[in-house]
Amino acid sequence: MLSSVPPFYYFLVSALIFIIGAIGVLVRRNAIVIFMCIEMMLSAVNLSFIAASHYLNSLDGVLMVFFVMTVAAAEAAVGLAILVLLYRGRGTIKADEINLLKW
Amino acid sequence: MIVSSLFFWIVFVLTALTAIFAAIMVITRRNPIHSAMFLVLNFLCIAVLYLLLNAQFIAIIQVMIYAGAIMMLVIFVIMLLSVEEEHRTYRIQPSPSKVIGIIVAAILFAQLIYGVAFRVLPGEIGEFTPEKIDQLGHIKTIAGLLFTRFLFPFEVASILLLVGIIGAVILSKKER
Fold it and tell me: How much is the pTM?
C-alpha cells in the first residue's frame, strides 16, 4: 500500500473540520461567513469520500466528489446572488435580522 | 519503505493540523476577509491530503474550483457588500442558543467518531488498485467511468449548472 496512514485518521480530520464548520454555521451571524462554513463542511465530507475510495480500491468516491463539487459551484452562484439581493433589499446580511419568514 | 512511510506520516500530520487550525480561524475571525483567506488555506491543505490519497485529479480540481473560483466569488461579494466587522458582545454569559448549538455539534462529533472508530470500513473492495490506475492514467480512468457508468449523473450535473447560471442571472437582475 502506498500510503501508510490508516483511514481512521483521515476520517478523524474530516469529522473535526465538519464539526468546526457546523459550529460556525450555528454560532456566527454574518451570512457570508455561514456560507463559507457550509463550503468547508462540503469539502470535509469530500475528504472522507476520497479516503474511503482510496482504501477500498474504488473510484466511485472520486466520481461522487466530482458531482459534489458541481453542486457546490452551482450553490455558490445562486447563494451569493441571494445574498446580494438580500443586501440590496434590506441593507444587511446579518442572519439575526433576516427574520421575515420567522413566526 | 520506512522512509516513505515516515514521509507520509509527517506530511499528513502537518497538513491535517494546519487544516484544523485554519478551520478554527475561519469561525473565530471577526473580519470576513480574514475568514475567507483562512478558508483558502484550509482548501489548499485538503488538496495536499488528496495528493497523499493518490487522487491527483481531485486535488487539482479542489485548487481550481474551491480555492480559485468559489473563494474568488465569495471575496468579490464581501468586497461588493462592504460588510462591517461583527461587533463582539462582551457578555459574561454566552447566549443559550450558542451553548445548545455547540453541545449538539459535540454530540454529532461523538457519533461520527463512534461510527468510524468502532466499525470496520464497510463496502466491497473495488477493482481499481493503484497499479491498475497507474497503468492507464488517473484522469483517463476517471473519464472512462464518467462517460460510461456515470453518464446520467454527468448529464444531470450539466443541467444543474445551467439552472445555477439562470438562477444567478434572474436573482441579481434589477427589477424594473
Answer: 0.89
